[in-house]
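Instructor's aside before we start: the two examples that follow are unrelated to each other. I chose them only because their records fit on one page, so don't look for a connection. First example below.
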Amino acid sequence: MKQRATKDEDRDVRITAFKELARSWRNDPETLNILKQRATKDRETYARVYAVKELANGWHKNPEILQILKHISTEDEEGYVRSIAVHELASRWHADPEILEFVKRIVIIDEEKYVRKNAVQEIALWWHDCPETPSIMKQLIKTSKMGDVRKAAIQELARGWHDDPETLDIIKNSTATDKVMDVRSAAIQELTTGWNADTEVLEFVKHRAMTDKSRVVRQKAVRELKKLWGLEIEESIEGNT
């Protein structure tokens, strides 16, 4: 089994072997070493992913595993592996105050947009009750240079902190001023989902349907107006696509 976990040429065979080792021979000292090796050295992305999961699941009380996963979160060459490691850190070590700071750093430094976006979602999920978290979302909306990060923060703020007095104004501001049309469209979606009983929001969305510089965003606003309020409105035909 150990030979298959480390030497087999087939990725799926290696994965099956080391998963079986983790389940049936967890107390064998070599099992942990094999998983650590597969998590950091295996040439296949999915093998490293499954090894990371097994380490987090079976050895999360081992301080060394925390350090290994932090290393993988920043150093693995594949964004998917880094993202899985961040998820395991957030889900299993969120009571550690240093982990929030670590995941916040991932949002800023990772080179892949989906890793950063997923890190935003992990913060909103696992630290929802932390007083600092809504401020983190607001700051990302205002300052992140990555559209996917701003979009994720808008979605999380709207859904997780709907009743915060600042949330509505922040979402409206993003709808009107964000440079990326996909972010503006997402902000319209959150407005019409979370505040569809607000007449001021209705008027605001009508205005965006007529004036946004992107046809895609105008069309999004028109569809939401028709779906939620039964309104037919002719969008402006001017502006960029």
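Example two begins here.
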Amino acid sequence: MFSRIMRNLPLVGNRLPSLSMLRATDQWRHLYPWFQSRRENYLLDHAIPWLVYDAAEYLRANLQKNIRVFEYGSGSSTLFWSKFDAHCTSIEHDGSWVNVLRTRFNPAYDVDLRLVPTDNPPLPLDKDIADPSGYRSDWFGFERQTFKTYVEQIDTFPDGCFDVVLVDGQARPSCIAHSYKKVKSRGMLIVDNADLSQYQPALHEYLAAFNCHSFTGIAPIEGVLSRTNVYIAP
């Protein structure tokens, strides 16, 4: 019993709530869910997307059933889409993580989970991370890798194909550049961590005509305020 309790305690030792989180009084209602999210596999167990909580609430309130979804970066969001009877195409670079996720899918879930590793060999690394033509990642440990094949998975689909595109994985400026035309009119293109400076040029260049709903607040697991933007296609 004691060991089970200890395993399920929120993992606050390495990531306590920041002062900015505690000062955001409008976000206090998310503090308890945030503590819960620190438990092992909690997001997977409850199909909670790793997005700002307010953005996830917006999605729950506005998404319809039988949607068509394309996402860069697989995880609890992949399980979340199943609640909307979605057809989901999900692109993931990590083979071990793909194996974990496959054990979580209901056999009736219409999901195309694709393992697409880094380019081998990588492209030249002469482009800035913010440059969509460089296909570079800002993730620690992937500084000398590129993700052109990963990003190009969406290119085989016609324009205006998806109700939702989620950009929450590798090489996000490149993903934005390749995916924005694939969203249906009035569909959603979601960009997580949209406050990061390296994403701003792509956001301004490709999504200026979209209507942006920006959510800054508490997100699962992270100890700082984050931002998720939901762009509505014209």
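Residues 13-232 form a domain with the Rossmann fold fold (CATH 3.40.50.150).
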